[in-house]
Amino acid sequence: MSRLERPKILVIGELNVDIVATGLRSAPEMGAEILAEDCELTLGSASAIFAAGVARLGYNVTFVSQVGRDYFGDFCISKLQQLGVSTRHVASKANEKTGVTIALSGNRDRALVTHVGAVATLTSEGIDEALLKRHDHLHLTSYYLQKALQPSFAGIFRRAKTLGLTTSFDPNSDPANKHSKTIDNVLRYTDVLFVNEREAAQLTGSSTVKAGLKTLGTKVRCAVIKRGRRGAVATLDRATVAHTGFKVTAVDTTGAGDSFDAGFVSAYLHHAPLAECLRIGNACGALSAMRVGGTAGQPTESELQTFLRSNTATGQKRSK
Questions:
Q1: Helix, strand or coil, per DSSP, at residue 167
Q2: Considering only CA atoms, which of 170, 277, 267, 184 is closest in space to residue 232?
Q3: I need a surface site. Which of 87, 127, 291, 320 has the fewest CB within 10 A?
């Protein structure tokens, strides 16, 4: 399928740089200094990493966001353009600072410190029916960070669904560690929901992945719980599939979950079976984790197929 024939994807969300320190041997502590093996400035934000991921897989992607009129903002826009993402709807604001996330990454996991900057003031202004009509799928993420856009999430999704778009939503973690029931209004118009284990527990109050997935499955058509190196589990129309992922040497897990989302959505838009969606998602997440930054390891379709031919997943389970 050519790029012109593929569904057109619209991503609305935050945009910031990531400063990624890798190879940490211990967690940082206040009042102490630890050393990193490497450090890089990369394109950050869940929304941008997802957009870059689906663009690499051959989709036409439009990104709607804002940055500060500064070096970091110019860096973000330039990187998105290099990756094939349309930035026509990314505004540069003279009175804002571009957001920054400092990612402290070890082999198993990472910690994030974020200055939200322009992320917190993005609104739904300019997101009109004409823009939505030019696309087939809408992805939103970072619900809790985007304070000004947050009240519009449900309305944007509702309009998109009315116009015939499919939708996906990855709310990410709430830095305040609270759960607002207003997010349920967004879920009402969500086709595919992505969360990790901690986020699933926050959303459902469930103590197990199985119970959390069951509850989420009553709220959306397709719910996915990402489990890091243990793969992912998903439910679609009440059928449940688990895919335990691929064994790779992880260098940096920053953005691996967003790359998973990109792979999953790519397969979902091709009407692939749920097991295949999980397999593609896990492969894209694994490839991302093998390079520093969220986008450096993201595969093209050809690179993805090469990886799948030469790597076997550790397992798959299905239940109903």
A1: strand
A2: 277
A3: 320
